[in-house]
Every structure is written in C-alpha cells, then in structure tokens.
Structure to design on (511 residues):
C-alpha cells in the first residue's frame, strides 16, 4: 500500500515547524538587522554554502544517490547499500573539504594582497561573512546526504526535523543580540554567521547518529570507489550538477544583479523568498521529498502506472493547498509583510518593497510546487539529462529577463522584475518537464487535474473577495485584521470545496 500522504504529512508537519521557526527568526532578524547593506551582504554570503548544499547535498548528489541506494534496499542487498553510502559520502566530504580550503585561501589572498583594488565596506563585509560560512558547506552537505539515506529507507521523521535545529540556534543568537543593543549591525550579522556554523556542525552530527540507528553506520573509507554503482552515482551526479549548477549560477547572477539594482534589493528579495518558503516548504518540498524515493521504488519494480497514479494524486493534493495559498498571499502581501517583518530597522518603505515582490512570487507558487514533483519523475529513472536541459533553457531565459529588469525598470521596481522573471521561468519549466515526461513514459494524467484545479480557482476567487472585504471593512491592529482575514478566507475556500465535493484526502492515494 502506498504511503505517500502519510509520509508527506510527516515531512510537512516537521517542515511546517521549521518554517514557523524560520518566520520567527525572520521577524527577529528584520528588526535587529534590517533590510540594508548588512542584510544584503549576508544574503550573498549565505547563498554560497546554500549553492553547495543544492549541488552536493540535497540536490544533485542526493537525486543521483537515492535511486541507486533505493534499488539496493528494494533488492534486500543491505550490505551493498551500506558500502555504497560510505564510499559516496567519503568522496563527497573530501571534495568539499578541498573546495573550502581553496576558496578560503583565495579569499585571504585577494584581501591581503590586493594591489590597486579598492574594496567598499559592503564588499569587505561580504568577504568576511563568506570566510566565516565556508565550513558550513561541509556540515550542511553531510547532513543533507544523511537525509537522503534516511528518506530512501522510509525514515522521514528525523530527516525532516533536522532543519529545525538551525532555526533554534539562529533564534537563540538573535535573542542574545536583543540584550546587547550596543553591537553594530556588522557585528550582529557576523555573530549570526558564526552561530550558523555551529548549528551546521550539530545538524551533521545529528544526521550521522540517525544513520547509525537506521543501520547504515557512517564512516570514511577508501574502498569501493571503483564499484559500478558508485560510478553510476557520480556519473548521474555530474549530469545533475550541471543543471543544478546552471540554476545556482543563475541564482548568484540574480544576487549580483540585485546588488546592481539597488543596495537593498538583494536583501528585500531574500525576505520575500522566505515568505514563499512557508507554503512551498510545507507542501511542495514535502511532496518532492517523499516522491523521489517513492518513484524510485515503483520504477525499480517496473510499475509505471503506479508512479503515474502517485504523481496525479499527489499533484492534486499539493495544488489543493497551493492554489488558495497563492491567491491569499497575493491579496494579503502587505498585511503579511507588516505583521512578520515591520519593526525596528525594518521600516514602512521596506514593507512596500517586500510586499511587491511577495505578490509576484505568489503567482508562481503552484508552478514552484509542480516542479518539485516533476523533477523526481526523471531522477527516479536515473534520467538526469532531461532536468539538465530544462534548467539550461529556463536559466538562459531568466538571465535575459533579469538583465532587462535591472537596466530597464525604475529603481523601485527592479526587484519586482527579478521576482516576475523567476515566476515566469518556473511556469516554462513545468511545461517543458511535462512535455518531456509524456514523450518518455506516455501521458502523466495531467488532464485529470483540469476539473479539480478549475474548482480550486473558483473557490480561491470567492476567497479573495472575502479577503478584500475584511481588508476594506475591518479596522484595528494589523495582526488582528490578518488573523480575521485568514480565518474568513479559509472558511470560504474550504466551504466551497466541500460543497463541490473536493476535499483533502487522508487515505493513501496510489496503488
């Protein structure tokens, strides 16, 4: 019996907790750090270990490793699976260690031996934060690899709870800063970076311990590197990394263009993206996390129809929440931004800037979620080339649109153009992936989603009317108005859905 919904509920619950903690973290950070130069420097510096995490951790490496590892588990070759995990993990950690050492040496050389180069205060702060956060690459990638092992073995609780640790440490340092108001902004953000480094070490240690409890004791080994399955993992990793690398290079280009657009633009876009992380992380990421090992197991048994049913049912459940979340965030963007961020160093102008980006990102929420369900379809079949091609196409389009946004739009709307480009490219990516999946395996059954999605859109339209009514007709504290609007909107949407016979299904959805 398929347990997609049960496992997704588990992942979603812990992810929701992580996102709630993340919002609390952002509420504190926006007040104690603000949305100025220091936040922009931190956003760029933190993007570098996150890029490594998506390349070597939960991104390319995990996508390549999980199907092969899952095949060994399904074949009851547990000892072979353990050797595979140890060999791949050893190679990944050694590679990351070398990258960190070389990057740190390069930054030290640039800073101490610059000749004729004049570095701004923002550049020097960014370099300082990058050097602090570089070792975090090793810790978070090791932790992400452990997540992949546990997910492939059907153990989703520990892996989905792990991200909460970072937010607990992060909130702790921001609370500490609260009692030290004499600290300058650059000192505050450096202490945040140091705390993230400590949290990463704790996350990795926790995941290695969970791997040991699951029967895959971690350890470094120089044996098995030439094994056929290890070579397959790295072959697929290299292909997937090209696609992930293209996306991350584009992301870094976005960060650089954000710095060019305005001194505050990168930080503002970062705040808006983190508001998107709540619905996307709880639902979209949860389904994507569960679907990769699920698809891998089904394709390993040759059950294409079972994989198709899993995809359709999961997509319907995901969109059941994503569609109203997109409409709600679009309508309530100023109110949500005000309640979560406004205060201290985060002023009314910052609220306006962030809410504009949030409203645009909200349009693409369903596309972002569908992408996280479509990509595992190919990865589970050891097909890394199709997502690679799609990534290259969308990255090129995104780069062109972002450059046009930065150099053609008014200063106050350039960051909105960056958000609009990301949303448009997500939609194009979904179309390309769905077309490729149809050519490879036949119909995905997307026609079965048309009627339910139309019902969701109708219910969301009525919900939007209720939200506008509350916004226009209710006065009082922002948090009270927001809570009342959400309650009224949810009542309307779920009431309309129930009347049309569409509900969140709790039972298993695939054969």
């Amino acid at each position: 019996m398929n347990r997609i919904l049960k496992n997704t509920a588990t992942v979603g619950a812990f992810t929701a907790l992580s996102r709630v903690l993340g919002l609390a973290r952002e509420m504190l950070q926006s007040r104690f750090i603000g949305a100025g130069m220091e936040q922009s420097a931190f956003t760029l510096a933190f993007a570098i270990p996150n890029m490594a995490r998506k390349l070597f951790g939960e991104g390319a490496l995990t996508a390549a490793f999980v199907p092969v590892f899952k095949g060994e588990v399904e074949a009851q070759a547990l000892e072979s699976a353990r050797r595979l995990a140890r060999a791949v993990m050893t190679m990944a950690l050694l590679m990351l260690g070398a990258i960190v050492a070389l990057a740190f040496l390069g930054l030290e050389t640039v800073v101490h031996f610059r000749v004729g180069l004049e570095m701004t205060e923002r550049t020097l702060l960014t370099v300082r934060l990058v050097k602090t956060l570089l070792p975090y690459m090793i810790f978070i990638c090791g932790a992400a690899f452990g997540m992949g092992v546990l997910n492939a073995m059907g153990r989703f609780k520990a892996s989905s709870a792990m991200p909460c640790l970072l937010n607990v440490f992060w909130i702790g340092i921001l609370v500490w800063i609260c009692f030290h108001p004499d600290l300058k902004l650059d000192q505050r953000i450096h202490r945040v970076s140091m705390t993230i480094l400590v949290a990463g070490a704790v996350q990795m240690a926790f995941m290695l311990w969970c791997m040991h409890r699951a029967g895959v004791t971690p350890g470094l080994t120089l044996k098995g590197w030439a094994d056929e399955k290890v070579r397959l993992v790295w072959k697929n990793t290299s292909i997937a990394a090209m696609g992930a690398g293209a996306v991350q290079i584009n992301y870094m280009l976005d960060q650089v263009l954000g710095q060019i657009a305005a001194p505050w633009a990168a930080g503002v876009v970062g705040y808006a993206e983190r508001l998107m992380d709540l619905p996307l992380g709880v639902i979209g990421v949860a389904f994507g996390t569960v679907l990769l090992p699920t698809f891998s197991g089904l394709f390993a048994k040759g059950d294409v129809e079972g994989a198709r049913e899993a995809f359709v049912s999961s997509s319907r459940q995901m969109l059941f929440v994503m569609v109203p979340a997109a409409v709600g965030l679009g309508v309530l963007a100023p109110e949500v931004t005000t309640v979560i961020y406004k205060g201290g160093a985060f002023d009314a102008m910052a609220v306006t800037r962030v809410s504009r980006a949030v409203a645009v990102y909200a349009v693409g929420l369903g596309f972002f979620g569908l992408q996280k369900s479509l990509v595992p379809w190919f990865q589970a079949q050891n097909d890394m080339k199709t997502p690679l091609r799609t990534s290259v196409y969308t990255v090129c389009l995104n780069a062109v649109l972002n450059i046009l946004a930065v150099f053609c739009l008014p200063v106050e709307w350039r960051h909105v153009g960056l958000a609009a480009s990301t949303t448009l490219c997500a939609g194009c990516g979904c179309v390309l992936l769905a077309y490729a999946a149809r050519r490879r395996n036949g119909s995905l059954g997307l026609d079965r989603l048309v009627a339910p999605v139309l019902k969701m859109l109708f219910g969301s339209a009525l919900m939007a009317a209720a939200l506008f009514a509350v916004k226009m007709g209710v006065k009082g504290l922002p948090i009270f108005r927001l809570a009342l609007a959400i309650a009224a909107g949810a009542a309307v949407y779920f009431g309309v859905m129930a009347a049309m016979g569409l509900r969140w299904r709790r039972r298993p959805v695939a054969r």
